[in-house]
What does this fold into?
Amino acid sequence: MLNEELDDRSFVLQMNSELRHAQLELLSAHCATHQLRLRYSASDLARFGRRDVLRKSAEAASVLNEFYTAIKRQMSERGNTTLVEPSEQQIAQAVRWLAAYLQTQRAAYLPPASPLDPQSRSSLEPYFSPALLDRIRVLELKGARVNPPDFFAEVRALGFDNLPEISHMDSLTFLDVIVFNQEASHRALFHGLVHTVQIELLGLERYCELWVSGFISSRAHFTVPLEVHAFALASKYLRSLPEQFSVEEQVALWISEDRY
It folds into this structure.
């Protein structure tokens, strides 16, 4: 009996490990597709995209949709998918949690962090103010990982399972300190700096309010408008024929148009 229980436990652990790996792959594909959707219309893709790639992508998406929809249906029948809409008090608490997390992580990572190296700073000068580039600090953890916040457990209890995979993200912005779970990349650095500008122009509390409300609406961190804008500007920066633009002006424009 004990051996059967151990076998069952091992089976469940292995299954959930593989499930988490599949989830990360799906999140990556979802993010890549979202970026594609931001830059090109469905009409353009249908007209100019490679038909074999589009066909295979659509078939794969359809199969995955059928598979996970069937699972979701069975979960619903078992009563396991009750998503509770958070109250105003819970939303306010989430905002406080997020703000406190960003502040405490900044305090923890600031001492070992370093200024931008001359080469990175030179490539970023057309896009960010000298004052911000002077102030920013960066840190590569090189083998270590940023730990997710403790409050994630309480958020998951409300049914929000699609929380950011903190330990697997390329970079995290803690106000003016950007931490890389692995080695720094141009995309991750630029993305992180966009968040610094957003926090600077919005203020920390408003930034957290918008992040939380965006996540509640979209249910995925990379479709939160604050994240969408950071992804879009980083992609614009990395184009083969990049154009110069002021990130501060772009963020200020989105604020004035209430796009966050």
Notes: The beta strands are 137-140, 171-174, 177-180. The chain has two domains: 2-77, 88-256. The mean pLDDT is 86.
